[in-house]
Design a protein that fits this description.
Shape: globular
CATH architecture: 3-Layer(aba) Sandwich
Strand content: 15-25%
Number of strands: 7
CATH superfamily: NAD(P)-binding Rossmann-like Domain
Order of helices and strands: EHEHEHEHEHEHHE
């Protein structure tokens, strides 16, 4: 990514799930426009990739720090924000991309799987939003990544889409609660993306079916979604809040 205009110079951003895919590209972008970035990762399996993200941000001229945290635990979310403030002195932007996928019939979802999906996509989103509501500076930007599946009648994604739907409601409520401070809070709901997040739960038939549901007969790319994140984290987006923005190539 070429160095862009420093529109976020002096800002501090947290990007969760930033070791790869959309999270990594979001962190790269924010660093490239001047923000100092906390690069969050979950497990040791993703530490090396997250470290590479930090290195790339630093090479663009911004600062970055690696922070591991299990966002299913409220104490870990608080620690993530604490480390951000201890390192950079404040928080201006939060982009929550952390997540995992489950695709199976509702009749086969176990209680453990249900709890895991809601802990990751609903509970963690709720407490990230709540902590951001307390910590983000006036005029800040909060973005939560949801999914287009929240507005689709389809099978097999029930617990994933249900947990994400809850997060979209949290976004609307928090946007109202802190809007007087000039902070915007929005959801971006991508369609299926050509990433390592998507393929493990799909097969050749389902991939082909989803491609043909878009107006261009293809899956989305990270580069299709990133412009929405760029806008919603920008100073110009101050009148766009409490929205769930579908970025899906006309699929749904």
């Amino acid at each position: 990514m070429e160095t862009l205009n420093q529109t976020l110079k002096g800002k501090v951003a947290i990007v969760t799930g930033a070791s790869k895919n959309l999270g990594a590209e979001t962190a790269y972008y924010l660093g490239n426009v001047g923000a100092n970035v906390i690069v969050h990762y979950f497990s040791d399996n993703s530490k090396e990739e997250a470290s590479q993200v930090v290195g790339k941000i630093k090479s663009s001229g911004s600062d970055a720090k690696l922070v591991q945290a299990d966002l299913r635990r409220v104490s870990e979310i608080k620690r993530l924000f604490d480390e951000t403030e201890n390192t950079f002195g404040k928080v201006d932007i939060v982009v929550n991309t952390a997540g995992t996928m489950l695709k199976k019939p509702a009749s086969e979802v176990t209680e453990e799987e249900y709890d895991q999906m809601f802990n990751i996509h609903a509970k963690s989103a709720f407490f990230v939003l709540g902590e951001a509501a307390k910590r983000v500076k006036d005029g800040g930007r909060i973005v939560n990544i949801s999914t287009t599946l929240t507005s689709v009648t389809t099978g097999f994604y029930s617990v994933y889409a249900g947990a994400k739907a809850a997060s979209e409601q949290f976004v609307k409520m928090v946007a109202k609660e802190i809007g007087s401070r000039g902070i915007t809070v929005n959801s971006i709901a991508p369609g299926p993306l050509n990433t390592s997040f998507f393929y493990p739960v799909e097969n050749e038939h389902s991939v082909d079916f989803l491609k043909h549901m878009s107006v261009q007969n293809r899956l989305g790319e990270i580069s299709d979604v990133l412009p929405a994140i760029q806008f919603l984290t920008s100073p110009e987006a101050g009148w766009v809040t409490a929205q769930s923005i579908r970025v899906n190539g006309g699929m749904f």
